[in-house]
Amino acid sequence: MKLALIHPQIIRSTAVETFLIEFAKRLAAAGHELTCITSLTTPQIGAALPGRWELLPRIRGSATLRMWHFNRLAPRAALAAGVDLSIGFGRTCVQDIHRNATGCHRLYGNLLPLWQRYSLKHLYELHLERRLYTGTETRQFVTNSARTVAQLQGVYGSQGERFHVLPPPVETQLFKPAENRQEVRALLCRKLSTDPARPVLLFVSLSHRRRGLEPLLEAMKSIDATLWIAGKSLNAVQREFVARNGLASRIRAVPVTSNLVELYQSADWFVHPTQYDAFSMTVLQSMACGLPGLVSIMDGAVDHVRNDENGLMLYHPQQPVELASRIQEALALGETRWQSLSTAARETALSLTWERHMQEWEGLLGA
């Protein structure tokens, strides 16, 4: 089948683009003829992905202007390429199938500061989203979670039969439990100046406000554990809160360059009190490493969390008192119960392979 993959930039920058690159490789390996339609890529990626490339002009100016320009040119390029099906991954409104990995922008936008909420870029993104889900220029939608489908249908009234839920795959050969967890844990605790006798909580985020760091820091005042914060650095306000409340000895900001697999393998609980996520891959990655999580119900990845079986759900992640209580419940579980959750978490992730994911896509493409 001749397929067009459409995205404004095909580089290793975001989770969407990383997925797209691997997805394209696997489509080509399955015998499909690809045309990649984009405005930005790298020579390395261009050489790695077989097929044709349509490099559209990337105009100077604002991000809003670039979105408008790409959305205007990409459908014409797909039509000119003579493909059987086109698949869009970004803010495009005209394609046969659109894969949504970022959720409902209308709901996500409610969490933005006012100055961003009323910016031209955000308003234009809302316009494109409304056009995509209320129009007929795209026939089918693929999302990562049932939660995202419900949100988009609730906001835009889109027809249910146009949606397909295909959970994202997780690299279980990379994200896996350590062969000797206690040894790996002891070494990393020493490296991060952490008391190995104290439980370790892991929080992973590049967007602390949305991911719920503030209520988590508040909850830490009553929790006897160490918190590793991986990803984005703490800002001045957060650092001041840590110092003022005597948390400095129990809070560790972990550099972005740290080995995420090693962190998953060494921590005792993954804590994810997000206010909104379409589908955070950190949830599946931690589960694949056998790390039980406390996962917010506001994340689409909660589709794969069975409360008290392979993890724990956070029903009120933004309420520090309830968050602290839930964490204390988790820390009170014995080793046998923890190990049961760990094993079940790993088994859940093992079912979400690239092979299964591609089979589901082949079924959709052939429908």
3D architecture notes:
- The protein has 367 residues and is of the alpha/beta class.
- Helices cover 44% and strands 18% of the residues.
- The protein is built from 16 helices and 15 strands.
- The protein has helices at 15-29, 43-48, 63-81, 105-109, 114-117, 120-134, 146-156, 181-191, 208-211, 213-220, 236-244, 260-266, 281-288, 320-331, 335-350, 354-365, and strands at residues 2-6, 9-10, 33-38, 40-41, 52-55, 85-88, 95-100, 138-143, 163-165, 200-205, 226-231, 251-254, 269-272, 293-296, 312-314.
- The strands form three sheets. The chain has a seven-stranded parallel β-sheet, sandwiched between helices. The chain has a six-stranded parallel β-sheet with strand order 12-11-10-13-14-15, with helices on both faces.
- β8 (138-143), α7 (146-156) and β9 (163-165) form a beta-alpha-beta unit.
- The longest helix is centred in the first third of the chain and has 19 residues, at 63-81.
- It is globular and about 65 Å long.
- It starts with a strand and ends with a helix.
TL;DR of this structure?
This protein has helices at 15-29, 43-48, 63-81, 105-109, 114-117, 120-134, 146-156, 181-191, 208-211, 213-220, 236-244, 260-266, 281-288, 320-331, 335-350, 354-365, and strands at residues 2-6, 9-10, 33-38, 40-41, 52-55, 85-88, 95-100, 138-143, 163-165, 200-205, 226-231, 251-254, 269-272, 293-296, 312-314.
